């Protein structure tokens, strides 16, 4: 036996060397003073170490990284109790990741390490799966598992081009998630990586998903929906700047009925490439009480329904403005000089949101921008201000403010209708402005109301 075991931190770690498969190592001092439910698992070079609460420590050689079966369930080394799990750097995984062994007896699907581990309380992945085309989902299979209130931290991992964290921890029970300095290669994917984590109350996504084209589609959608949550804070800093998809990134998250405080911060990514899509990126965040989105990259062609339904059920009134910093209750802050020139489809961008006022400058710089139903159904909306240079033009405003029953003040001086199809005399259901004010406070209200337009309004 060329290696030996030693204690390091919270976990046991196998020193560099070669062990025979399932050879047992007698380290009697290891278990002294430790909880019988504690398990540490560490990958170091080609070794896997487990300390089972019912057995003695052992190391197993994994020369081909091809026989990693389930660590939980009948006959597996992890018991059904709350246990921490740690993975450290491994040179073997730098070549592309684990290939799970097939199930014994012809069962359904591959056997993968954490399938069925519903009691994991803490997972840390550090500098693993560094090679091209690494697959985190098949390597760890955390989707649907993890103890309620547990935590997972990923750092310096999935660095190669094409690294895939799709559905990595989808629907897991963790309350705290930290991802930092990971998914930095071109063409990487975090698609649905943490979607459906209903109990997620703390998220830190830092300096990650920065590679060209990294896909963040639905990465955190449906998180924070558990009715028992009373507060939540999500932070995304210096991430998602590679121009990949932000479609439905946070769709439906932070909507748990018990949330009295729910804040979101997107910082440090303003200099990155525009995403390929921002459609529904923040839609349905119904209980959001405040957001600092000043670190968002430039808008892409599709920003349809990007903020639809946001704060619709928030415990406080929320106002949208540009500039400032910090996530504060009652405010959604967009970038001060948010580049909107590349936007083409902004239909329903704020539809059904719970905002009391919206102030945006720069929408008029886009050419042929669709604003159909842009604010439709915003029941609390009393004031809208779309200012700035009207160097471009809007394509249509059909139903733009329909159903905004509280609306009393509108400033549209920053958009132009000069390039809108049709003529001043066009009317009817196909008109580019049909139903623009239907059911709004400008039509149904009894008090004073104002509408301001600019020189670019050559067609009305």
Give the structure's gist in a few sentences.
Helix content is 2%, strand content 22%. With 460 residues, the chain is mainly β.
Head-to-tail CA distance between termini? 85 Å
What do the pLDDT scores average to? 76
The structural class is: mainly beta
Give the strand tally. 22
Radius of gyration: 26 Å
Low-confidence stretches: 1-69, 77-83, 86-111
Pattern of helices and strands:
EEEEEEEEHEEEEEEEEEEEEEHE
What amount of the residues lies in strands?
15-25%
With strands numbered from the N-terminus, the spatial order across the biggest sheet is 7-8-9-10-11-12-13-14-16-15-17-19-21-22
Work out the helix count: 2
Biggest sheet features: 14 strands, parallel
User: What is the global morphology?
Assistant: globular
Percentage of residues in helical conformation: under 10%
